[in-house]
Amino acid sequence: MEKPFSEVKMKHSTENTDNVLQEFNKNITLDYAWLISYVIFIGVLGIVGNSIAAAYYVKKMDKNVNVILLIVISLNDLISSLVNPVTTVYDFVNSVTYSSIIGCPAIYFAAHVLVINSLLLLTVIGVDRFLQIYLVASKLKFQKSHVVRMLACIFSGSLLIALRDIWIVKPVPVSVHAGQNLTVTGHHCMHSKEDYLKPVIYAFHIIDLVTVIGLSVALTCMYIMIRRKIDRTHKAVVAFSNPIDTRAVEDEVECTSSAAHDTDEAANTCSSAKLSIKDETDSIVKPSILFKWGAHTSEATNDHTHSHKMLEVERRITKMLFVMTGSSLLCFVPYFVVSLSLEYDHESSGWIYLAHRSFLLNSSLNPYVIGYFNSEFRRFVYDIFCRFCFKAVRG
Questions:
Q1: pTM score > 0.85 for this model?
Q2: Residue 13: exposure state from Cβ atoms within 10 A (0-12, 13-18, ≥19)
Q3: 30-44, 82-96, 297-311, 323-337: which has the minimum mean pLDDT?
Q4: What's the pLDDT tens digit per position in 330-348?
Q5: Which fold, 5-394?
Q6: H helices within the chain, ranges in order?
Q7: Got the DSSP string for 217-259?
Q8: 70-108, pLDDT tens digit by residue?
């Protein structure tokens, strides 16, 4: 029995539509081959770098709160470097044929969760360092016993924030022009274009932007305060370790005491000055004020060479964490520019595509920042490379 003419025509029309959409996908893939190569390259860098960073911190004997958090952020960024480039390339290859109602919001949701995890972990690391160094006497310091609860709060918060993507991200119908008189409808995975959702999506972008700016300001202030505390401590340790400076201070106090010996008030003033100098110097050279994570030895109090080295290490660590945080936050600038001021859809230029996915860099930069500031990490990488080359030569 022959099929009705209407059914044959509909099947033919469907085949033509599919062919047009596939041809459009093919052209997009070819036109943006450079962008796809860039995404894959960033993903490979992230996988290699975060794998080595996670292995390096896992091997460290002194696993304090900061080290544990750096392990977690390396593993989170490793997963992000695996997942986000794959979903991004899939999105390119299926630019106008992404019709999955579940898969479309799921990839946005997964990317959002991983990126938020990274930002929140960097924030907690900055706060922990501030408590360890600037507020040395504070009882608010994070302990190892708090890590599990902190991570549970971070992951739960990320999931709750990203849940909105299930609502606002959809396979949106788009028009694909295949000729002068032929226009077919495809589906592109992006934020919904429904009128009632547009102000909601815009409001979410504003909230995200304000949050990122707020975190940037707060963390910058904290790292500036940490740096100043380290510099002041370094100057004080240098002064205390110099016998000439110490004698000069003592002589000055003695002179003040002798000149004012006739009055009880002046004598008390002189005594207070001596006590003030002694207390300040003692507080500066205490090992806890030298910001050394983990156990401290009593010898460190009098070992000024060791103190100088510790302070220099802390200065580099502070710079490293500040650059890690700053670079991660800067990765979102192009994304917010596109989201708030430009129209993004399946016909956007490659540069808009690139800006809209600028957050991909967030998961790949940290290991290389660590390598730049941490000589021990560089030696660890060098040892791995040498062992690999040695095995390759022997094999």
A1: no
A2: exposed
A3: 297-311
A4: 988 888 888 887 777 777 7
A5: Rhopdopsin 7-helix transmembrane proteins (1.20.1070)
A6: 5-31, 33-59, 65-93, 103-133, 144-162, 164-168, 198-241, 243-259, 264-285, 304-330, 333-341, 350-356, 362-373, 375-394
A7: HHHHHHHHHHHHHHHHHHHHHHHHH-HHHHHHHHHHHHHHHHH
A8: 999 999 999 999 999 998 888 888 888 888 889 889 999
